[in-house]
Amino acid sequence: MLLRKIIFITIFLFSFSQICFAQTSGKSIQIAPKQTTLAMKSSPAFAELLLRRTERESELEEFLLDYTEEFPKVKELRFELEVLKKAMDKIATVHASESGKLTLALGKLMVRKIELETDLWNLRRQYNDDHPEVKRAKRKIEVYERAIKEIL
After folding, report:
1. Any idea what the Cα angle at residue 75 is, between residues 73 and 80, rounded to 5°?
2. Helices 104-126 and 132-151: crossing angle, nearest 10°?
3. What is the pLDDT of residues 25-73, one digit of tens each?
4. Over the chain, what HEC string results?
5. CA pair distance 15, 21, nearest whole angstrom
6. What distances in angstroms separate CA 39 from CA 51, 54, 89, 149, one per listed residue?
7. pTM
8. Which end of the chain is more exposed for a tag (fewer CB within 10 A), N or C?
9. In whole angstroms, what is the distance from residue 120 CA to residue 135 CA?
10. Which sequence spans correspond to the domains of the chain?
11. How remote is the C-alpha of 114 from its chain's centroid?
């Protein structure tokens, strides 16, 4: 009886492994989208953006204890959080084969670009697009955008 069970289990495992091998033979193994997203979310670049988002959310909560949504700093933090979300979504779309590009340096570049975009947003609330400070801020953002594109 015991011998029959051992033989049955051995035949079953052997057959199962042969079926699995036949299905993957000659094909590249695909990483599931969930695993890809997990890989991106565990990258140093994503962690840097997550750190910044957490700091800003904490700061926003602190301001909301004393101020309304109309307070300028609250509006600024909401804007920055929106830009951070877009950057995090961008990282999540990077293909798993290119996950090595998601370094801490990339994360720092992206955070600095977001800071500059927030500064530009503030300047545009005060000046028109022809103002020298606005033009200067736009040029700085373009430099960071080029560096990020060079990596990605």
Report:
1. 95
2. 160
3. 444 444 444 555 666 778 999 999 999 999 999 999 999 999 999 999 9
4. CHHHHHHHHHHHHHHHHHHHHHHHCCCCCCCCHHHHHHHHHCCHHHHHHHHHHHHHHHHHHHHHHHCCCCCHHHHHHHHHHHHHHHHHHHHHCCCHHHHHHCCHHHHHHHHHHHHHHHHHHHHHHHCCCCCHHHHHHHHHHHHHHHHHHHHC
5. 10
6. 17, 20, 13, 20
7. 0.73
8. N
9. 9
10. 34-151
11. 13
- Contact present, 148 and 109 (Cβ < 8 Å): yes
- What would the two tokens of residue 32 be? 């599931």
Copy the structure tokens of residue 138. Answer: 């736009």
Assigned token pair, 30: 């695909």
